[in-house]
Design brief:
single chain; 159 residues; mainly alpha; 2 domains; 0% strand; extended
Length: 159
């Protein structure tokens, strides 16, 4: 019940709540945390390996290797989502697949795939950023605020 605080439960309802709690399966919190940590760590290790590869074999610097690394992670995540593999990984790992870049790419790609039957413009284009739109808007606004803060500090001689 969503309004437990407003409404007092009768004795029968209280007994039922207690009985239902005894039958509720216990969640394996420790196992879920370990799986999320493991898969999230593997995703980040792959990203670090890609960055190392761009630095070693393509003569990128530490700073410039970030952009192609992110692009490759987005591509891999989108392909895995399209082939239905990312969903199985997410089912196993839970929050471990919510690493920002891969989780964001999965969200956008899965929304596009889900609405492709409605057409490219109204289906894919219109629904692709429904879930991700708030993230994009918040990111743009945050960048604006940080830039204003940095310009203000620079004008005051702080940076």
């Amino acid at each position: 019940m969503s309004n437990k605080k407003k409404k007092k439960l009768t004795l029968t309802q209280q007994e039922y709540q207690a009985f239902a709690k005894t039958l509720e399966p216990k969640r394996p919190v420790i196992a879920n945390c370990l799986k999320a940590f493991l898969i999230g760590g593997i995703i980040c290790t792959i990203g670090q390996g890609l960055q190392w590869m761009f630095i070693k074999y393509f003569d990128f610097t530490q700073v410039t290797a970030g952009n192609p690394t992110v692009a490759v992670l987005i591509l891999i995540s989108t392909l895995l989502t399209g082939f239905g593999v990312y969903d199985h990984i997410a089912q196993f790992a839970g929050a471990g697949t919510a690493v920002p870049v891969t989780g964001f790419a999965n969200t956008v790609a899965s929304a596009a795939i889900e609405h492709r039957s409605e057409g490219y413009v109204l289906g894919v284009g219109g629904n692709m950023f429904k879930l991700a739109g708030s993230v994009i808007a918040f990111g743009v606004f945050s960048a604006f605020v940080v830039t204003l803060f940095k310009i203000t500090l620079k004008a005051l001689g702080g940076i």
